[in-house]
Design a protein that fits this description.
Blueprint (H helix, E strand, L loop, with lengths): L7 E7 L9 H12 L4 E7 L10 H6 L4 E5 H10 L5 H26 L3 H7 L2 H12 L1 H21 L8 E3 L14 E4 L5 E9 L3 E9 L5 H15 L10 E6 L9 H5 L5 H20 L4
Parallel strand pairs: 1-2, 2-3
Antiparallel strand pairs: 4-5, 5-6, 6-7, 7-8
Helix pairs in contact: 3-4, 7-10
């Protein structure tokens, strides 16, 4: 305001557990005071909200009003409480929340826990060999289960009327546990748009579905789909960019897959859960047929 700073604000990110350098926090506060003596603040962000180690207790007490301690969990709760209307910013915030929950909080929890079963296996050579043999088969097992899920979802799609000219495919040029892997994609007859299930993080995390354009230059298709989506979801729908016209995370452990999620594939239950979310949109799309 009038070329003067109103507030000086800084965030020190220690989510990866990096150690403080000597006098690090004191130095940051001194820099902030130089920018704005009265209105400044430092947020010290850690996994568990602990105090910084580079500042003595007496100095911390004196500067307590200038510093806020925040844990990863508190950051997630704050982000969830913030109302964001801009679609691209909303997408970024949700991506960041997913990153904290899956890459920071889950890793921290795993490092603190020892499964009792692991302790029992480690005591017996035969158990160790069997466990390692099973671990070596993990990728093959995942692929078998993904193939089964694909077949179940394809069968459900083929039960719809007017599906004949749609193409149903799965991604083959990426490893299944890679980022942005698509276990299934439904491509329109005009080949200008598709509906897909996708993971936005490695290791089967952040599962969502998206309606995306292949050719953003086709104004007829773009206008037809945009009008359709605005009628169905409103103008404030989740839209990441000009390619992703709409996207939505699945709920519960269908979003971040666990062993329990995988266990529902052989019975067809997981396919039922995914299709329950997709069926209304998919049915509308195959009947829309927006061909110029």
């Amino acid at each position: 305001m009038n070329n003067k700073s109103v507030w000086a604000f800084s965030i020190e990110n220690k989510l990866r557990g990096a150690r403080d350098q000597d006098r690090q926090v004191i130095s940051y506060l001194e820099d902030l005071r130089k920018v704005n003596q009265e209105n400044h603040h430092l947020v010290y962000l850690t996994i568990n909200g602990k105090k910084p180690t580079s500042i003595e207790e007496d100095d911390y007490q004196k500067a307590e009003k200038e510093i806020s301690l925040m844990s990863a969990q508190e950051l997630c709760q704050w982000l969830a409480s913030v109302e964001v209307k801009a679609p691209k910013i909303q997408f970024f915030v949700q991506q960041f929340q997913t990153f904290i929950q899956t890459e920071i909080l889950s890793m921290n929890l795993a490092s603190q826990q020892v499964n009792p079963l692991t302790e029992e296996i480690a005591k017996d050579s035969a158990y160790v060999k069997t466990a390692l043999d099973i671990m070596n088969l993990q990728d093959e097992l995942y692929q078998k289960l993904l193939d089964k899920l694909f077949e179940d979802l394809e069968d459900k799609f083929r039960s719809l009327e007017n599906h004949e000219n749609w193409k149903v495919t799965k991604e083959t040029d990426k490893k299944p546990n890679a980022q942005y892997y698509q276990p299934i994609r439904f491509t329109s007859p005009c080949k200008n748009f598709y509906l897909a299930v996708e993971f936005n993080n490695p290791n089967f995390r952040g599962c969502f579905f998206t309606l995306s354009l292949v050719n953003t230059e086709n104004e007829f298709i773009k206008e037809k789909l945009t009008t359709f989506l605005e009628k169905k979801y409103g103008k404030d729908r989740n839209q990441a960019d000009k390619h992703w016209l709409y996207w939505k995370y699945f709920d519960g452990d269908v979003r971040d897959w666990t062993n329990e999620t995988w266990a529902r594939i052989p019975t067809g239950q997981l396919a039922d859960e995914i299709w329950q979310e997709l069926e209304t949109l998919t049915t509308a799309l195959v009947n829309l047929n927006p061909t110029p």
